[in-house]
Amino acid sequence: MKFKARTAFAALLLSVPAVAFADADDDKLVINGDLEIVTKAPAPAHLSDSLDEIMSGWHFRSDETQALEMDDFDNPGMIFVDQAIEAWNTVEGAAGKSCASCHEGPENMAGVRAVYPKWNETAGEVRTLEMQVNDCRTSRMEADAWKYTGGDMASMVALVTLQSRGMPVNVAIDGPAQATWEQGKELYYTRTGQLDLSCASCHEQNYGNMIRADHLSQGQINGFPAYRLKNSKLNSVHARFKGCVRDTRAETFKPGGPEFTALELYVASRGNGLSVEGPSVRN
Amino acid sequence: MRLSTLTVAATLVAGAAFANPVSPGDVVFTEDGAVEASLSGAAGNPEEGAKIMGSKQLGNCVACHQISALADVPFQGDVGPMLDGVADRWNQAELRGILSNAKMTYEGTVMPAYYKVDGFTRPGNAYTGKAAEGPLDPLLSARQIEDVVAFLMTLKDE
Fold this sequence. Notes:
The structure holds two protein chains of two kinds. Chain A is an alpha+beta fold. Chain A has helices at residues 2-18, 63-68, 77-89, 99-103, 129-140, 151-162, 178-189, 199-203, 237-246, 258-269, and strands at 30-31, 35-36, 40-42, 53-55, 118-120, 125-127, 210-211, 214-215, 226-228, 233-235, 280-282. In chain A, the strands form five sheets. Chain A has a three-stranded mixed beta sheet. A two-stranded antiparallel sheet of chain A has the order 1-2. In chain A, strands 3-4 form a two-stranded antiparallel ribbon. In chain A, α3 (77-89) crosses α6 and α7 (178-189) crosses α10. Chain A is globular and about 50 Å long. Chain A starts with a helix and ends with a strand. Chain B has a single domain, classed as Cytochrome c-like domain (Cytochrome Bc1 Complex, Chain D, domain 2, Orthogonal Bundle). Chain B has five helices and no strands. Chain B has helices at residues 2-18, 46-54, 86-89, 92-100, 142-152. The radius of gyration of chain B is 17 Å and the shape is globular. Chains A and B meet through α1, β7 and α9 of A and loops of B.
């Protein structure tokens, strides 16, 4: 039948741009000359039907943008980390505490980013790092919650993330987190908006291809928060998700809400095995 | 008898030329996903079609397709096939079908449907990220679709 023949023909054509996967270059990411970052890894078992290899978004950026992440003096995201060190030590709120009052130095946060989002037994829910930071602020410091995608929050998340830089992402997807993970997976594959595209339409089916001027990556979040040259600030995971959903001409979900939290757990799990890379530099 | 049927048919065809645009819900697809009748009831303008394909605000087809005839439009993507010679591969009705709703031709394709207004999940108000207010407009009007089809029909290698 005509329909089938043409589809097969199109499939053949489509396999041509697939060669452009080579475009995810073979460069190596070493930060400050000594910290080796795993930017390519075998796909985790739960992805075995859809991907062989997982890759950091770093491989899809230009050499110039890549270079900015190879030295902390060049990485504009580090300025925000410095600001967060100050915030870490600043007493705020009715309880008269700072982060340091409970946690001492930020280095005690080593390993934390790698396993977030994570099931919180007491709360009975999966929590993102941002939710956890705000929980400390409101219940332990008795200070105001930060805006979920605001600058204070992104900077603090960058400081916490930095303590795990180089460690493998390893979020749990089973046990009590499983239901949330399933919900996130469902969202990842749901086509939204008038353009009717899912995360998978761009980041699973078309990574390596160009969509207008943008080189599509796998949409991994191991590099977050990401400093974007486009808006000259640190961008949080949910802000990025919101932008991508908006670009399908859809009504987005709310940053910090249950849908994006579930989606974050799922997307993080697609990067299990890559190194924590944040704060990264992207365009 | 035969004569009068023919007359009726002729009247219908003539009538179609002046008909109002076919609304997105009323588009008739063949089994293979083609749309035989002009959506606007008129022939399209290929020069307009070229503009629509290259414009970010309109078709933005170059986001996904390369077209040598639009070489002055920078940053052409490669999510979809290169469109050079596309009129050798498809006839006018088939191209109209692909534009109106590409999923009728290619099951599950990522190419958006340009003349469809319902059946979407969480449709937004254009690119604001907010919910759509009231019924959606199709991504391109009937006339714009015909303009693009007319331009695509000029893309012949042979």
